[in-house]
Amino acid sequence: MHADQPPERTPDGHHVVIRGRRWRATDPSVPEETAARLRRHLMSARRAVRSATAADDEQAERAAQSRVNRAKIALGERGAPWWEQSEEERRHRWEEGLKSLDAEDAED
């Protein structure tokens, strides 16, 4: 896989395969603009985990890991499988996840 190519997907489309390992795919029904915003939150939270770990700050690390988890749930990569949810449940998942992450950023 080259950086400009999307990862391989399983035949059912539910997972991507990266270096031989299956990972749950992002819910394809998440609008691209929303998915991009959620990915920015995810990357920011991952950087915060790394910084907190380096600083040996367990409280900050737990908070950052919680943000990572919320972003991944909103993207459909964790939690209830998106292919088993109704369109309404899926929309609610990403809208509430984004609202929560945006609100937390506004507090900082």
From TrEMBL:
Residues 88-102 have a biased composition (Basic and acidic residues). Residues 49-68, 81-108 are annotated as: Disordered. It comes from the Bacteria. This is Biopolymer transporter Tol.
